[in-house]
């Protein structure tokens, strides 16, 4: 009992420190796109009901204070190191404990669990199912069937985790079986707990096999222990492009791969979604003609910095910045000229948005045209 009370006190203390006793939640400014709402979702979290170090309600308070729309408490089914102090006879309990706080804070709470098996197939989160206790079975295939039969979205966690499989992430026959039997719907392209948090292999598989591109914090500690909020850091998360802010709409969007992964000023996704985010975030605010050049103001309407660099092999006659960051919710002035023209009417340049990864490890190409106002 003393251990349990000490653990709970520590959890509450770190919550206060990380949130700074904030009375108002943060706001994450990422634009809506393509007629959909951009929903922030952390689909991979732990509490003391498996191997995390916080009580379930703390995860709700953290999400509320950070401006996160939705979370899932994905307690391990097979791994519960604190079971001497926190007895888990009902695997739905973490969700049930957190639900009143989530309703009070208007945080969307999605039922989840981590099916924790050796590789292959590895660790998977079941999301949106009805009864976590039905996942408690011996054979791993039966656990996946039990999740599928409840309509669960199945997320492959940290495929590049070296503790489970040294070296690059690998696709096994077991994953093909899961895919063919409707038991694999998404993959963690970003896992904020790992040193190498971005997996290019997972990004490629998401494109090859029609999987939702997901980002997760996989937090076990109080969030303030891992994220430096004072420095402007945010947890890893999934951006879900949903028809509305609801659990049902989030599931529909994820099943139809309308997602992107975001962490550490890096966003990974499909080009159609990233291009729409870029177009809604980025603006050429003004262009002024000078004697032999243009000056222009570039503005960023989002919380994600926009890192631009010249496309290799292009723009040979144009003089302009070769690397530039348009800061979050800020602007930058640039100068640009065409060496082959004196009375120029417009200048077009080809760039790469370095931190918008539309292909594995590759920034997204964009073309910008500058015309004087």
Question: Segments where pLDDT lies below 50 for 5+ residues?
Answer: 17-21
The helix/strand series, from N terminus to C terminus, equals HEHEHEEHEHEHEHEHEEHEEEEEEEE
Strand content: 25-35%
Number of helices: 9
How far the N terminus sits from the C terminus, by CA atoms, comes to: 70 Å
Q: What is the CATH level 1 assignment of the largest domain? A: Alpha Beta
Give a verbal description of the structure:
- This protein is an alpha+beta fold and 373 residues long.
- The protein has two domains: 2-269, Alpha-Beta Barrel (TIM Barrel), CATH 3.20.20; 280-370, Immunoglobulin-like (Sandwich).
- Helix content is 25%, strand content 31%.
- It is built from nine helices and 18 strands.
- Strands 1, 2, 3, 4, 5, 6, 7, 8, 9, 10, 13, 15, 17 and 18 form a 14-stranded mixed β-sheet that branches.
- Residues 17-21 have low confidence and may be disordered.
């Amino acid at each position: 009992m003393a251990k349990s009370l000490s653990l709970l006190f520590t959890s509450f203390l770190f919550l206060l420190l990380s949130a700074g006793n904030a009375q108002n939640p943060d706001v994450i400014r990422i634009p809506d796109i393509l007629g959909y709402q951009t929903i922030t979702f952390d689909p991979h979290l732990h509490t003391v009901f498996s191997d995390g170090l916080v009580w379930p309600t703390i995860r709700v308070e953290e999400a509320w204070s950070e401006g996160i729309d939705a979370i899932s408490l994905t307690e391990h089914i097979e791994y519960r190191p604190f079971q001497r102090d926190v007895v888990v006879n009902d695997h739905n309990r973490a969700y049930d404990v957190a639900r009143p706080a989530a309703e009070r804070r208007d945080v969307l709470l999605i039922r989840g669990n981590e099916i924790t098996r050796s590789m292959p197939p590895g660790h998977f989160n079941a999301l949106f199912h009805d009864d976590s206790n039905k996942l408690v079975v011996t054979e791993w295939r039966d656990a996946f069937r039990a999740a599928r039969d409840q309509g669960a979205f199945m997320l492959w966690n940290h495929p590049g985790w070296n503790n489970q499989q040294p070296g690059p992430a690998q696709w096994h026959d077991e994953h093909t079986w899961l895919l063919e039997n409707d038991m694999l719907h998404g993959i963690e392209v970003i896992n904020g707990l790992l040193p190498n948090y971005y997996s290019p292999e997972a990004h490629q598989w998401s494109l090859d096999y029609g999987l939702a591109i997901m980002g997760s914090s996989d937090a076990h500690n109080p969030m303030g222990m891992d994220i430096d909020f004072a420095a402007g850091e945010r947890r890893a998360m999934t951006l879900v492009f949903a028809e509305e802010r609801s659990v049902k709409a989030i599931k529909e969007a994820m099943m139809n791969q309308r997602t992107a992964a975001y962490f550490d000023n890096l966003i990974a996704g499909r080009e159609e979604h990233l291009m729409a985010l870029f177009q809604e975030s980025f603006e050429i605010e003004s262009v002024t003609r000078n004697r032999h050049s243009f000056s222009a103001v570039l503005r960023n309407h989002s919380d994600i910095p926009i890192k631009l660099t010249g496309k290799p092999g292009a723009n040979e006659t144009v003089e302009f910045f070769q690397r530039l960051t348009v800061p979050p919710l800020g602007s930058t002035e640039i100068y640009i000229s065409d060496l082959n023209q004196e009375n120029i009417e417009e200048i077009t340049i080809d760039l790469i948005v370095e931190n918008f990864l539309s292909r594995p490890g590759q920034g997204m190409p964009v073309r910008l045209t500058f015309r004087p106002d």
